[in-house]
Design goal:
Peptide Deformylase, 5-stranded antiparallel β-sheet, two-stranded parallel ribbon, binds nickel (II) ion
């Protein structure tokens, strides 16, 4: 089932999300719906607050970010905790399904170490780099209530203020299902 994506301005996008356990109701169905919603909107990642739930859950598919086959990862991250971000910072133009039509350069460390659980609540601790790390960093921000535009300069934020207001009011056209806070 495709879920409506919450737009910029929705308070759920600013929540520090809470951990879940294996008893969370209909979790496997929720994960399947999040994958479907991400794929339908051509996203490379989707975090639970973006579909209105303030829980520590996100899915990614970084395979679209690589030319080479087999390079990306399609994964679910439950209760993720960032242990370390290191290696040189690099800049990449990011976007977000909750903030359509806005792309900005964001600088982030090249490598991360993350502790999380998979869809079967198996404990994992893994290192990620390249575009996969970039996507995880962006989605991890979401479960901490942080958006990519928080990383840009205040001058650049002022320049997109009008566009952000339009998004929160639903005064935009977008080819996937969205829910606007102020419409
Ligand atoms: Ni996003």
């Amino acid at each position: 089932m495709i879920l409506p994506i919450r737009a910029y301005g929705d308070t759920v996008l600013r929540k520090v999300c809470t951990p879940i356990d294996a008893d969370y109701p209909e979790l496997q169905e929720l994960i399947a719906n999040m994958y479907e919603t991400m794929d339908e909107s051509n996203g490379v990642g989707l975090a639970a607050p973006q579909i209105g739930r303030d829980i520590r859950l996100f899915v990614i598919d970084s395979s679209h970010m690589y030319d080479e086959e087999g390079m990306g990862q399609r994964r679910v991250f439950i209760n993720a905790e960032m242990i370390e971000e290191y290696d040189d910072e690099w800049v990449f133009e990011e976007g977000c399904l909750s903030i359509p039509h806005i792309r900005e350069n964001v600088s982030r460390n090249g490598t991360i170490r993350m502790r999380f659980q998979d869809e079967n609540f198996e404990e994992k601790e893994e290192e990620f780099d390249g575009m996969t790390a970039r996507v995880i960093q962006h989605e991890y921000d979401h479960i901490e209530g942080v958006l990519f535009i928080d990383h840009i300069s205040s001058l650049k934020r002022r320049l997109i203020k009008g566009k952000l207001t339009d998004i929160s009011k639903g005064n935009i056209s977008v080819d996937y299902r969205m829910k606007f806070p102020k419409r």
